[in-house]
Amino acid sequence: MGTQFVSVRVMRVKRYGGLAWLRVSPLGFTADPGQFVMLWVPGLEAVPMSIAWMDSLGAEFIVRSVGETTKHIHELKRGDAIGVMGPLGRGISSVMNVHVHKVLLVGGGSGVAPILYTAGVLGARGYDVNIVLGFRSREEAGIREVFEHHGVDVTVVCEDGVGGPCDYEGLVTEPEFVKKLVTSADVVISAGPLPMMKAVYRLAGDKLIAIMESIVKCGVGFCGSCRLWPGGPLLCRDGPVFTASEIRRLLE
């Protein structure tokens, strides 16, 4: 099934500091973990959004407020209409080795969105999955509730201390147990800010599969705004899922 444009209704919005959990009515299409959509709010610019969850009852997104459209998304009410174009890009299945069994998922900030959907799908397929999430604050780490809502167990590392939803203090790659999980995993799938991805790469090397973030305007490879470097791949067409070898120049 190709890319579709659908109108959906907002079912729920709950904020956790600068992040918001958005649930909408069913999209009417399926997507591979790592793929994304363009969300359109009437009267505003469309924005790229990773899929955080998808089932027969609806779809979910984790949205950071960084601009006019995403700020408006945080303020949506139940019943509001928005547009969704997708699925877009390349997902996890295209790069997963058939011999992989143990998977470590590492997410940071709004990058935890594709980690949730990936965890749900891989867990249902029988993979042995561990998940570690990193956040700037305990307030944003409250989004852990969304993972628990879907029965997905996680360990949370926060930069501003322990307590509440936070299990460890520091950067997500710092705890010793994370380094041990990286060593024992067959593959490490990570999504989040580039500095975090570089830190994960330093631990995982070529075991890393990265779900990248970039400015995306059109979502279909026409405008070139999401090219990762001059002459390099387009995130919206060639990604957002990449092997470490495909984007090594960004990670080193």
Automatic annotation (TrEMBL):
Binds 1 FAD per subunit. It comes from the Archaea. GO terms for biological process: pyrimidine nucleotide biosynthetic process. PROSITE patterns: FAD_FR. FAD binds at I62, V63, R64. Keywords: 2Fe-2S, FAD, Flavoprotein, Iron, Iron-sulfur, Metal-binding. GO terms for molecular function: 2 iron, 2 sulfur cluster binding; flavin adenine dinucleotide binding; metal ion binding; oxidoreductase activity. Pfam families: DHODB_Fe-S_bind. Its cofactor is FAD; [2Fe-2S] cluster. [2Fe-2S] cluster binds at C218, C223, C226, C236. This is Dihydroorotate dehydrogenase electron transfer subunit. It comes from Pyrolobus fumarii (strain DSM 11204 / 1A). The lineage of its organism: Archaea, Thermoproteota, Thermoprotei, Desulfurococcales, Pyrodictiaceae.
